[in-house]
Amino acid sequence: MFGGDVMLMGSSLQRGHMIMEEEELLGLFEVMDALLEDSDWPQAHPQPCTDTPWPGVECEVSSNPLIFHVTKIHIGPDIVSPPCKPSAHVSQSLLKLKYIKTLSIFNCFVSSPVTLTKTLFGSFSSLEHLALENNPSLSGEIPPSLGDVASLRVLSLSQNSFQGSIPSQVGSLVSLEQLDLSYNNLSGQMPEEIGGLKSMTILDLSCNVIEGVLPNSLGQLQLLQKMDLHSNRLSGSIPPDIGNLMRLVLLDLSHNFIGGPINESLSSLELLEYLLIDDNPIKGGIPRSIGKFIRLKSVSLSGCGLTGLIPLSLSSLKNLTALSLGNNSLSGPVPPILGSLPNLDQLNISHNKLSGVLQLPDNFIKKLGKRLDLRGNSELCISVQPNKNLSSYLEIPSCLNTRQRTDNYAAGGPLEDLSGIKPSWYHNNPSSCSSWPSYLLVTLFTLVLNLVF
């Protein structure tokens, strides 16, 4: 189809100092023809590395002989013209681009079903960055041949419709630094071989249907900074080996079926800033060792079936900005010392069995405003003076009213049913991967930017 264009291109470059291999240029034209709704792309860009460039294609020059090679193809919404065609797919001609280092395709496969052939990536020796993201019609299984691309440093296949299990061959990617398979329909268990990814800093398998226990081999990922496994069907307990991840900054195991207790070995994670384990059947108490996570900024243990007291060791977390302990069975008083945490800006201890007189400082209560959630603790009250307005604002009764309600209950009158009330920033739908609290979205996005750049 594009043979004439290649011949002209070849003759043109032969007259200069540098050439481009005919087969490679033909391969580029065929790859772009499979993706873009522009049959004239070869005519508009006959010399894509020099005189007629396109923003989504980059080239580099090799020596002996001096020759251009395509090293990057990027298709995405930031390049508005030409758009992807409705029948867009990945051409086997991609194999002709032997020097490609980066392939990124965003929001391109949206209507016609697309799968990746089993042999598509196995022969690449230079590919470092593969990102196929936000392509709802990209389905099928992840090709095991990806495990043969030893040069791969970033593999991001998020927000697609991939199915099946994570191929164990992925564990052979010894240079891999980032693995993001989030927001797919992946099932089965996490392969034990994932512990072989010794260079990895980011692991994100969130929002799939992965089941089984967390492999102990995760503890071998000594460089890991982010581990996000939320919204799967993981079970068992948190392996003590996770305590070996000394560089871990974010640990998100929320919305799974992981049981407790929370392993004491986690207290060795001295760099941890985000600990998110909400909506798991952890049960038991909050370990006192939580006070050893001195860098913690956000803790979420809501909906974990926790019992016992809120530990005073939380007062050691001077960097804490968000604490969510709602929807548990915690009892006893609210430690007043929580109000002295200098950076705390979100506090959810709603729907527990907390009791006694609330003794948080007034200035702390006013600072947090609606970001303080105390509802659903029927035995918790606020003193009548000088907090008449705060009682109504916080939706908890004054201590005088509490005594009256208790007397009424003893006489046979029902107490108000608060079981249906949910905190405003609680995960309403555990199976949904779009129900993140806004404050966590901002902080996690900032974290990822810091890790990547």
Automatic annotation (TrEMBL):
Residues 119-352 form the Disease resistance R13L4/SHOC-2-like LRR domain. GO terms for cellular component: plasma membrane. It is found in: Cell membrane. It holds the Pfam family LRR_14. Transmembrane segments: none annotated. The keyword Membrane applies. Its main location: membrane. GO terms for biological process: response to other organism. The keyword Membrane applies. Keywords: Cell membrane, Leucine-rich repeat, Membrane, Repeat, Signal. InterPro entries: Leu-rich_rpt_typical-subtyp (IPR003591), LRR_dom_sf (IPR032675), LRR_R13L4/SHOC2-like (IPR055414), PGIP (IPR051848). PANTHER family: OS06G0587000 PROTEIN, POLYGALACTURONASE INHIBITOR 1. This is Disease resistance R13L4/SHOC-2-like LRR domain-containing protein. It comes from Flemingia macrophylla.
